[in-house]
Every structure is written in structure tokens, then in C-alpha cells.
Fold this sequence. Notes:
The complex is a heterodimer of chains A (804) and B (283).
Chain A: H1 39-50, E1 58-61, H2 68-81, E2 88-92, E3 102-106, H3 110-134, H4 136-166, E4 169-174, E5 177-184, E6 187-188, H5 191-196, H6 199-255, H7 261-276, H8 278-282, H9 284-288, H10 296-301, E7 305-309, E8 319-321, H11 327-331, E9 333-334, E10 337-339, E11 342-344, E12 350-351, H12 354-358, E13 362-366, H13 367-372, H14 376-386, E14 388-389, H15 394-398, E15 411-412, E16 416-421, H16 423-432, H17 436-439, E17 442-445, E18 449-451, H18 454-470, H19 478-491, E19 497-499, H20 502-518, H21 526-540, H22 542-552, E20 563-564, E21 567-576, E22 579-593, E23 597-600, H23 601-604, H24 610-627, E24 635-641, H25 654-666, E25 670-671, E26 674-676, E27 679-680, E28 686-687, H26 692-706, E29 712-717, H27 728-735, E30 739-744, H28 747-755, H29 773-801
Helix pairs in contact in A: 3-6, 4-6, 6-7, 18-19, 19-21, 20-21, 24-25, 25-28, 25-29
Chain B: E1 12-17, H1 21-37, E2 40-48, H2 49-56, E3 61-63, E4 70-72, H3 75-100, E5 104-111, H4 113-120, E6 125-134, H5 144-151, E7 156-160, E8 171-174, H6 178-191, E9 199-203, H7 208-224, E10 229-233, H8 239-248, E11 253-257, H9 265-274, E12 279-282
Parallel strand pairs in B: 1-2, 1-6, 2-5, 6-7, 8-9, 8-11, 9-10, 11-12
Antiparallel strand pairs in B: 3-4, 7-12
Helix pairs in contact in B: 1-3, 6-7, 8-9
Amino acid sequence: MPAPTPLAADALYRRCDPDGLPFETTDEITDLDQIIGQDRALDALHFGAGMSSSGFNLFVLGPNGIGKHTVVRRFLEERAAGEETPPDWCYVHNFEEPNHPQLLKLPVGSGKRLRDDLDNLVDELHAAIPATFESDEYQSRVHELQQEFNQRQEEAFQEIQEEAEGKDITLLQTPAGFTFAPVRDGEVIGPEDFQKLPEDERRRVEADISHLQERLQWVLRQIPKWRKESQEKVREVNREMADFAVGHLIAGLKESYPDHDGVRDHLDAIQQDVIDHVDQLRDRHQHEEQDDGGGYEALLRRYRANVVVDNSQLEGAPVVYADLPAHQHLVGRVDHRAQQGALFTDYRLIRAGALHRANGGYLILDARKVLMQPFAWEALKRALYAGEVRIESLDQIYSFLSTVSLEPGPMPLDVKVVLLGDRFLYYLLAEYDPDFRELFKVQADFEEDLPRSDDNNALYGRLIGTLVRRAELRPFHRSAVARAIEQASRAVEDSERLSLHAGDLADLLQEADFWAGEAGRERVEAADVQKAVDKQGYRAERVRDRMQDAIQRDILMIDTGGAEVGQINGLAVLQMGGFAFGRPQRITATARLGDGEVIDIERETEMGGPIHSKGVMILSSFLGARYATNRPLSLAASLTFEQSYGMVEGDSASTAELCALLSALAGAPLKQSLAVTGSVNQHGEVQAIGGVNEKIEGFFDICRERGLDGSHGVAIPQANVVHLMLREDVRQAAAAGQFAIYPVTSVDEAVALFTGLEAGSRGDDGRFPEGTVNRRVEDRLEELSRIHKHERGGKEDSGNDDPA
Amino acid sequence: MTTPPSGGDIRRVVVLLDASRASRTALVEAAELAARSGAELIGLFVEEEDLLRSAALPFARELGPTSGALRPLDPARIERRLRAQARELQHLLQGMTRRYAITASLQVARGRVVTQALAYISPGDLIVVGKTGWSSLRRRRLGSTARHLIGEASLTVMVMEQGGGAEAQPTMVLFDHPEAGLRALEMAARIAHRDSRILTVLLPPADPDTLDSLRRQAESWLQARDLAAKVQVLGGLAAETVAQAVRSGNGRALVVSRTSPALAGEAGSRLIEAVGPPVVVVP
């Protein structure tokens, strides 16, 4: 099998030709009026938003920064604009059950009107009630009643007094009441004189007094009854006057709400309440001070309206985004007012939540935020299940002690909830929350990239133009746009695709604009985009630079020249925050006589992840399958990442590990000027890996520092060639023949490349040709096997011979 | 105030007291009046002989005004209660002494109220008396004590039902005779509130000349003392007309001369009955 040939320079990068873009600068192109590359998600949105059945709420999946929010919002706003504007809602006092404020549904715009009308009504009551009760008519009617009562009482006394006088008896006042006493010549008779009276006389006096006492007693007992009757009459007059004062106001209002039964009923209730509370209302000074609910102001306050949802400014259905979806922000809350250390509330302190405001339209929520706010997720589900939103504080729901508070009537809910979140959250919820799939039946999955084509490049150019204008940046020259498109390919590590990550793209454009400004340019050129890319890297590269430095100083040992047995340069990718970089990693292998085990030192020390272990197991099984089908693999091999002190995960080093192991077995030195990446399967085929660009650049940087001489290069899986979007300096070195990228499909190709020897295929005799690497491996394994057999046999013999 | 009203200063304010709440209100009012006019305050508590006698009768019963309950009555209990009341009143008066910085004392007498009051009072005293006694029973008729005292030619009598009004309310005076009217005006100026001293002069209906002369007389008297007053002509001197004028003028007291035609005969009683605020009758 021939050693692989280096890739041509143009295979290392897919340029975007600025001349292929149909504009000079982004000023010439119109804004993108469509959402590109998200057909599947848009289709799901269209379906989800259009389905009116309950449970067809949406979950929009995709990584952060992909532009889910913008896309969803734009889609929904366009859709909502054509829909009917939902009604206004307001809370009013419930006169029958004061703790359950009543919810009134009103046509759009009528909420405010009702509130203003009721405010006016209250103002008018302020004037009308005192005026009515200060009127001469009222005063004289009440005065009459008072007189009537007094007269009745007085007449009764007068009668008794007259009767007493007629019988020579007087009514005297005692310290605590009254007493009757007989009088002679204007003076009360003393006991001695009384005794002197004739028997008949005495008896008569006593009888008279007893009779008068009874009569006075009767009168005294009637007084409360008379007073009550009199008061009842006064109250009746009060009612009549109140009815007169408020009746025409209410009637006028009712006329202006002909079709609103709810409002009309409420107005009737207000009228009845005014009549019932007229005593408190007519004398405001007397009741003003008590503000505990019985005061004058407090009474009038109950006639107002609290518009919780006012859609009068809205055109179409609402699209609400709740950026802090805490429990009370979702379902609303009831505020309290502190008064002299005590808390009070009433229907006017009811505050709507996002669900109320979005009712009849769409509510956009970030799934992560909803889940992170205590009780918010449960409250949201509860509202969606019940089809109504109930304002309840967490205190009411969860507290051990419950205080009397408001329980506002629930609002019937007709809302489409759109949750935005990353895929991980979606799958977790789908797995662990049985309610989730019942309530969020539609998933809108966002693509992260789109195929690269001339048409898509042009669309992407318009996307860039749109973002540039939206952020008010300098116009981008088409060369800059082309460079940004190339960078979008690099971002998805695929020369054939473009990243749809609008957040990162917007960041890049803004940074490029900054550097163009620094350079004093009126428009953004390719160089500015390049500078933005470089600077992004530079700002994040401190750790990478320290590692490169350590390698240059041979603290981290990486050879870039010569050849060694059982030692190879693997390539690792380190991800630090949003920045990834590659670095070479020395991998060594040793082989000796053993029982067929390949020891993965990383795994033994618990520094290797499961995927890495899997890769090592695959290569050990490859060894056995290829070289030792007929006999036991009598080998003990060890593999390790030298100077690696952290976790190793992934199988992208398995090709390198296999090469090192084969080198150790064959005693064939490997070129240290090369590095390799790729995973391997049981048949020895090299498979694709991730981070190919970073890996190549990581090795290139070391080699360039030490001086490129044409021997340096990196072997990569053939399947990764389409992912190449390499840095310009790498491409230049490749074009100059100083650095080579070798695509490999099998481990044999890699071995041939690294050893400079033929790998060898089995001939007709079933053997690998003499002198090939494979032959040397096979021979060595045979030898080990023989030794092993011999050893074992010898041991068994000696065991048998042992007299003991 | 520049010139004090001349002559006829109030020497003592004598208030007829019993144990009722109304009489305590009257006491406060009287104390204020005494303080305002620099007079001595005397509380006169008469233990009614009639009452003691009647309590000694074997069949004597007391009838509770509110409950209507009948209770046995015996002289010892009445005596005890009267003494207790006297002590309470004594205590109350001491309080007044401190509060208003006046000389105050309690006189306890035994006999009939009118007799004792007349025996005690001398000219220059102002006697404060309840309209119907201090009974808690509502009776429109003027009580016999008040009626008797008003009838005494040489006394200044204040008949009151409830407490006096706020200080911003005017003191009203019926000015219907050149001489008697001046005496009434003088008294009104004296009892009007020290700071505000708001007066309303009520003139009787008369022919223009008489009216004009009365008005000028009142005004010059007021001018001489640097006092301001509202002058109002009444529609008549009938009890209800005067009472209505006091009501609509929001008066805090009405001062009227005993010789005024408005007080003549039964009409006089009716006037005092009809007017809500205290009525002061001057000799």
C-alpha cells in the first residue's frame, strides 16, 4: 500500500469568492425578509401556533445564540398582527364576597373607559351625597321625625305627670332614677305625716303611686322601641335620598354599557352598596379617619375598577416575552400596602402576570429561566392544564399559617406558550416530566448550519447586511462579507456548511466594525474581519501560549524531528470557554511478553474516559484479529499519553496509539516530524474525528516555531478533508511545500507514512511480505507466542517434575 | 380687647349641680366662663329634702330611667349616695381650680333647690341652671327650677341644655330696647370667647326710625369698645323665629334681657325651650 500523498493547498480551505457575491458593499442589498435555513423549525412554529387544541404549545430547541428568540418573536409578531385583539380585563370589588374580587371581561378599549367612568362616578358621589343630605328637604324630614319621637316621649311623660299632679303626687329625680312621692301643700309628705293620714287615704296614695310607677315603667320600656322606629324611619329617608342621589348617575352609566351584563350588574351592586352604606357616606368627616375598611374613602374606593389587562394600545394579538418568569410575574400577584405597621390589600392592588397579558396571544419564555425560578414551572403547567390563571401567592399555597387575603376570580386562559431552550433541556424534560409532552406537543428544532452554495452565500450576505444595518455598523465590503462567510464555515468545522449562529456572527461583525474604525476606514474590509478573528483568538489564547512555550522549552516533550520507536505525536483539542485549540500530545507504547492485554494507563489511573477506553479496546481487538487469529496474543502492551495530568476523553487518538504500538512491536521508528489524528475501527480503518482544524494548527504552530523544513505534516482521516478550513499561514506553508496534510483511510497508510516502510498486505501464502511493517509485527507476535508457550510448557514440566 | 365692658361685672358664677353627666358638662362650661370673666366659681349642690322625705316612705321605689326597673329606696342609701356625690363634685371642682386658675368651691345645702339657690345667690352672680334640671329624660318643657330662677328680677341666669359651642361660633344678643338691650350686649361681650369675641346683634322688627336708632346705639356702643359685630334684623320675636335665627346663625349662646317682649309670659318659656344653645337672661 503506497504512502498517502499530501493534499493540494486548495483542499485545505474553501474560499468564498467575493466576486461571486452580487454586491459591492452591504449598503446595496436589502434586508433579509425571510428566515434562512430554519424551514423545519418554521414549519413547526406554523403548525404549533395555528393549532388551537390545548396542549399544542411549543418548545423551540436550539443552542444559545442561534437566534431562536428573534426568529420566534418575529414569526409570532407577524402572525399576531393579523389576529383579533383580545378583550380587556379588569377586577372590581365583589360586594357579596369582598375577598373574591370579581373579574370583568370587556371589549378592547372598554377597560380604561370603565375605569374612568367609575372614577368620575366616585367624584360625583363625593359631591352628590353630601349635597343631598345637606338639602333643606332632607334636613326638615329628619327634623320632623326627630320631633315626632320627642313629642311622643314627652306626651307620654306629660300624661303621667298630669295624672300624678291630679292625684297630689310628684315625680322626683333620685341620684339614679325617678321616684313618685305624695305631696301636700307643695311639699313631699314625710313618713310621720304620711302615717297620720287616714287609712283609706294612705292606701289610695300607695295604689296611685303603684299605678303611676307601672305606667312610667311602661313608657320607659316603650322608649327604645320608639327610638328604634324613629331611627328606622330616618334610615328609610336616608335610603330614599341616597337612591335619589346615586340613581340617576348609575342609570346614566348603565346606558353607556348596553351590552355588558357584567358591568350593568356591577353598577347595580354599587347603587345598592351606596344605599346600604349611606350613613357612613353622608357624614364624611365623622368616618374619614377610620381607614380600616369602614372609612369614607375606603368605602368609595370600592367603587373603582382595576384594569389588569389593557389591550387598547394593541394591534392584533399580544406577543409577550417574560424575561424574569418568577412565579408572581407569571400568574400575577396581590400587593399589600403598609399602614402603621399593618398590611392591607384590596382588589385595586391586584397585579397582572405575563399569562394575563399574553392571554389571547402568545407568551414566550426561556425554559431555563422558568425552571430556575422556584414554583414557576409548576404554576405554568397548572395554568395550562386548568385553562385558567389564578392569582395565588406562594404564601397561600404553601404556608402553614394562612391569613385572610384576596382570592381574585380566575381568568380563563387562551394562550399559546412558546418555550425556548437548548436541546438538552428539552430531552431532559421529555424524559422526566410526564406533563411536559402533554403540554408542549410541538417541538421546533433549530438547525445550526446550512449547506454552503452560491445561493446560500448570497442569502448569507444579505443576513450579514441585515445584521450590519440593525447594529448600525459601517457597510461591509464584499471581501469582508466573503471572509465572514468563510469564518462561518470554520465555526461549524465544515467547508461545506455555514453556521447559523447569529449571535456569534453578530459579535464578529461588530468587532470587525470596531477594527475598521480603529484603522480609520469608512467601510469594513476583509482585513478587519481577519483582525477580529485573530483578536478573538489572541484574547483567549493565554493558556495555549503557555503550553506552546512549555513545548518550545522542552518542558512538555514533543519531538518534531527524527524517528523513534513506540513514540508518536497525537493531537488533542482543549476547549476553554468558547475557545478551542489543538496541541500535540506525545503518545508512547511498549510491548512485552504477556497474556494478551493492552493496558490503557489512562484508564488504569482513572484519567481516561469511557470513549477513550473503548478506542483502546478496539485497537487491541484489531491486533488480535489481524495478527493472531490462530494463536493466543501473548502480549502485554501499555499505552499512555505522556505528561498528561488531566482527563483524557475521546477516541481520536486511537490511530496514533495503534501506530505507536505497531512501531513498538515491529521495532520500526516513527517520524517525529509528523502527527496523526483519527479514530480506528476493528478493521483498521481510520474514521473521522472532531476539531481537525485546531489540531492541525496546533502542531503547525510548534513546527513553525522550530523551523519548517518540508518534512512536517499531519495525517488526518480522509473523511475529515471536507472539514478543513485552515488558517492562512498553514495554507501558505502547505502551498510552499513546507507543511503537508495527509489524508489517510487506513492504519496501514498511516504506518507507511510514519515509518517510510511498506505496511504490507497478505500475499497468496497468507503471509505479509518480508520486510513490511505488518510482517515484522506478525513475526514479533509469533515469537512472543512461542516464548509464551515455551515458558508455560517449561513451567508445567518443571511443575510436573517437582517431587513435592 | 381695649376697654372692658363697664359696670355689672360677674362676681361669681354659681352652677347648680347634681351627679348627672349633663351637670358635669355644665360645670366645665361654667368654669370656662368664670375664668374668662375673672369670677369665682361656686358649685351649689342641694340635697333635696323632698327626695329624702320621699325615700323614707315605706312604699318608696326608685325607677331606673333606662332599664325601667323598680328598686327599693331607703333614706340611708340616699344619704350615702348624696355624700358620695358631694365628694366627687368637690374633687371635680378642685380640678377646675387647677385647670383654669380660678377660685372654686362647693356649697352643699339641704332643702328645696329654688329656695336654697335664691338664698345663696346675690346680685352680680350668674347662675347656671339646666333647662329641665339635669334629668336624662328628654322633656321639652322648661323645668320648674329654671322657670323660677328666670322669674327672679335681679338674677342673671344661664339656662343650658348641652355644652357650649366652638369658640369660632358667635355669641348672639337680642337688642330690642335701648337700655335693657345695652345690658344684654354688655353681658354678651363679657361671655363671648375671649380671643374671638364674635358677636351677632339681633334687632327686633320695628319701623325704620326705631330700627335705625337701635342699630346706631348698638354700633356706637360696640365702636367705643372696639368690638365688631354682625347685625341682623329678625322677622319677628316669636320663639320659633328667634330659635331659627340662632340655629342658622350657628350661635353658641343667646343673651336676652328679662324685660324683652320675647320673654314675656308663656312665650318666654317657649323661646328658652326652642333655642338649643345656652340662653342667658340678664336683669
